[in-house]
Amino acid sequence: MVTEARTEQLPIRRFAAINPIPLIGLSLVGLLIVWLAINLEKTPDQFLSAFLIGITTGSVYGLVALGYTLVYGILELINFAHGDVFMLGGMICITLISEVFNLHAGQAAYVVWPAILGTLAIAMVGCGLINATVERIAYRPLRGAPRLVPLITAIAASFILQNIALATKGPNFVPLNTGSSGAADFLPQGNVFTFGHGDQAGRYTWASLIVVLLTVPVLTALLWLVQRTRQGKAMRATAQDREAAAMMGINVNRTISFTFVLAGSLAGAAGLIYAVYFTSVRFDQGFQLGLIAFTAAVLGGIGNLPGAVFGAMLIGMIQSFNNTLSWHAPGSDWTQSIVFGILILILVFRPEGLLGERTPEGG
Fold first, then answer.
1. DSSP string of 190-254, one letter each residue
2. How many C-beta atoms surround the C-beta of residue 38 within 10 A?
3. Which one, out of 2, 122, 204, 271, has a CA that is 20 to 30 A from the CA of 63?
4. Cα–Cα distance for residue pair 314/54, rounded to 1 Å
């Protein structure tokens, strides 16, 4: 009996279980860094060219990703119709450039730039109104419903916008006229600069530079509006606690509508940049690019504005490196699998994103 009592009192050694998930994540990141370093050493000109293309593509993704993160930050709603608002913005821009302003090769800069800026303004206003209309009709009546209900409604709104584009523009690509370099023919057709020589030579086109020149002021204005203005403070207060914001005198409905207008305006700006850079838009492209931009927002930390831009730049560079680098790159056929594989990895390893903060789930 004594022996049994002493046996029961012996401490039980517990060994901490080793979690392999962080090790797997670090291993994947390490392999990626090694692969990039080898490509940089073997083909530095090609690497720099891929990097610049990634920045340009990431700029387009960033504008769309910011729309996702703005709406999610204030309503915790993933607005799947946002990508289709971007698609409509691209079609509006191509229609204005080709049929209203009639831009074509050989026109002077003082004709082209006012037309581009006018197209940008019209697209931003139009897409802002479209997005606000979707919020007023589809989302506001369901604000108190379970989260699954507005999510399904967002998918339905996405298909409605796609079918509007299909009915008005048809199933084929809506193109811009292009010049010898493949860029829109009213833009300068040469390169801003080139580096290297031979097959591995890199170049940076005027179309790529114009994308960055249009994107940077829009992003800067957005950050200033959200962080420095009274309306931006109302948005942040509503995102933090809608009931408390209403008690402090903030018009919550108007603030949410303004957020949708702002997100739609960003989609309109992205539509112009996409149309100028890629020179064609089709009715179903918004859904595909919207998912990529949503992945960028999740990667950076959805609800975090700098995180959305950071994630978009990373996705743009990952796509560009995969499509451009020659040493053991999977190739363009694997690009979408890689992007959405990153989405799965982020949701598994760090659901709050790279720059997001872990917060308790609300009831």
1. SEEEEES-GGG-EEEEHHHHHHHHHHHHHHHHHHHHHHHSHHHHHHHHHHH-HHHHHHTT--HHH
2. 13
3. 204
4. 8
Q: Tokens standing for 244?
A: 């408390």
Q: Is residue 148 a part of any domain in this protein?
A: yes
Whole-structure pTM value:
0.85
| Low-confidence spans in the chain with pLDDT less than 70 | 1-22, 25, 179-183, 196-202, 328, 357-363
**Which residues partner with 174 through β-bridges?**
281
The residue segments making up the domain with residue 130 are 48-188+202-283
Closest Cα partner for 339 from 359, 309, 317? 317
What digits encode the pLDDT tens for the residues 212-257?
888 888 888 888 888 889 998 999 898 888 889 899 899 999 999 9
The answer to the question of residue 260 being in a domain is: yes
Residue 167 maps to a domain: yes
Judge whether 3 lies within some domain.
no
Count: domains in the chain: 1
CA 30/CA 82 separation, integer angstroms: 34
Residue 14 CB neighbour total at 10 angstroms: 6
Model pLDDT, residue 49: 84
